[in-house]
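Revision sheet: structure tokens.
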Amino acid sequence: MSRKLFTVGPVNVEQDVLRSMAKPMITHRCKEYKQLHGGIVEKIRKALDTDMEVFLVSGSATVLLEGAIRNGATRRTLGITNGSFGNRLIECARLNDKEVEAINVPWGRPMQPKHIEGRVGRGVEAVHWVSNESSTGVLSDSVALAEEVRRQKPDALTIVDAVTSAFAVDLEIGRMDPDALVFGTQKALALPPGLAIALVSDRMVAKASKVPARGFYTDFLKLKKNADEDYALTTPPVSLMYALDFQLDRILAEGMPARYRRHDEMAKAVEKWADRRMSGLFPEKGFRSKTIGVINRGKLDFEPFHTALKAKGYEISGGYGDVKETTFRIGHMGDATVRGVKDLLDAMDGILEGMK
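Predicted:
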């Protein structure tokens, strides 16, 4: 049975977007591919108001997060975390033989400059965190964090997981000035999974030239050499790139301010429902995600509730990590609309009434 996805990812993909993938295949070394690749890069830059390098790599966003760690630090990093995916980024660094000092912020609370005061020491080469923590629904102020890192150590790099925030929240990339900001196609871009995207600074590329053992697949020097010619290092998912090109045109036609407002309105609708029907949202007020509502489920038996919701043609997400048993999650990102979210919430109301 086909279901409308209000999950944390992959998210719902509209039919016209799926149809855009059904074009004849081309090789990734031909002139047509070069035009496709170059056009995508320029549209990403325009949408996000940046002139940073744009790397496109087959895989989930994790592949470029790992790449940023490998290219951005020889030995030591500082990892800030307030949830499962911040923990994963720290694990990623450690598995790549980096010494990581972890700063653990309570789940449901935002990461703030005060948490890293005096912690960006002389040996720290890079600081990494998740801008919008998917397990808890907390949106931290990445601009403030990046500014605090630079205040303490101007040459420390910043690596930001923007998987569930890019293209849904105005991250003020110019002010943040990250060295690697990473996201993927299957979240707020509302595309199938399979392509990782990173905005990369000149500082990161310069650092990579001094880091040994960068590997091959995400060697930023190799990626830049190919990106300079509008080519991919290895075979890209061409059909998915057709869809990305199509979707970027739709996004630019909507306009980024309108897109950000729509995500804010969807988040407010879910927050209002959670206060009315559940035990409210899990994260601290004032730092709540615009793309994911993490809801305290109280006494709700989630599995039969979700089964009934699926029967009505909708799918949401269960809790994750340390709050798996006490929360559930509604993803409202990408091409989701305020009307669509309200229809979902109405269906959920009906199920709750029937469960009394």
